[in-house]
Structure formats: C-alpha cells, structure tokens
Amino acid sequence: MENQATETGSNKALEFVNKLVELMNLDCKAEADETDEKIRIVVTGNDSNVVIGYRGDVLDAIQYLTLLVSNKGECEKKIVVDTENYRAKRTETLKDLALKLADKADRTGRKIELEPMNPFERRVIHAALADSDKATTESVGEDPNRHIVIIPKNPKRRHGGGYNNKGNGAKKYQESAAPTSSEQPAYDPYAAYDGSMSNFKHDGPRKMRSFGYKKPRF
Length: 218
Description:
This protein is an alpha/beta fold. It has helices at 2-23, 48-52, 57-72, 86-108, 119-128; strands at 28-34, 38-45, 78-83, 112-114, 135-140, 147-152, 157-159, 162-164, 171-173.
C-alpha cells in the first residue's frame, strides 16, 4: 500500500510539471530521477532558462506547486525540481560567496549583511563557514526578509590606515550575478534541503537571487 501511494505521488508530480510547462507554452519536458528517499524532477529543453526564471523565482514556484500536488497523492518522498543543474551551481556559487565574504569580514573587521535568502540558501552559507577561523554566521529578521550576517571573529583589523573598532556596522552586500567556477568536487545541492512541505508551508516559495538570467516576459 505504501509503495502504491509513493508511486502515485511520483506520477502525479511528474505529470503536473509536464502539464505546467505545456500550459506555459515552453519547449521543455520533465523526467523523474527517483531514489529510495527522493524524487528529483529534471526539466530539460530549449526554454529551460525560462523555467529558472528571474533569479530562480519560477523554479521555486514550480517546486512549491509540485510539492502540493505530490502531498495530495500521499507521497512521502522528498521532491526537488531542477533544471540545467541550477541547484548544484547555486550551491557552489553560495559557497564561494561565503568564503570570499568571510575573508572580507576578517580583513575589514566589519560585519557583512547579505540580502534575504530562502532557508535552503541560508543553510548553504551557514555550512560553508561552520568551521571557518575567520568569521561566524547568524540569521536575523523574519521571513521573507530573514537574512544572514557574517561576523568577523576578530573585529579589530587594520582598515584604511588605522584600526576599525566599529564591529557593529553591517554593510549591505548584493551578491554577484555571475556564477563562479570551482575545481572542488561538486556539492550535493540537496544535502541541506529536505524537499518537504516544511520549507514552504508558511509563506510559500522565497524569491532567490540567481545568476545570468533576465526576467522573462510572458
């Protein structure tokens, strides 16, 4: 009975994504890659950049709706919707960003305040700096404006020819629009993200910053 419920949820999720991209008049097709714990739906095609949307907002919305549909089918597996390996690239970009900003915080002795991110992205930043000897991280604020502050472990650093003791001055940072390449092994973009309704049930999907995509016009 459990296998039947899982299969039904998986089929419903895949059918829903394919029907959705069809209604959006996109040249795309979705396929499911299923494991014992997770269902990963991958969208491919000429219009996959539109599926990602402006800074990932369309992809997040599709994933949220897919979670709702699969939940009705009593599917207990985690579900992730992806295209063009976006989530793996996003994880790498955020990790590189975290390390660079930790260096900057250590060099300047100042806190660095990032823009609001969804729970998945915040966990990537926290994990990237968990063992850092230069900076720590904390999440502040309430959703949808909850964001990370990177805090130098040594707030007194030489800055502009003198010593900067203003450790409480947070500087707003807008992350770069282009992804960075990395020679390190690829991270599992879903290690932190649990693919469940718990990430979305409060306010739905969060808008996230992407890289290199222009806002589509429908």
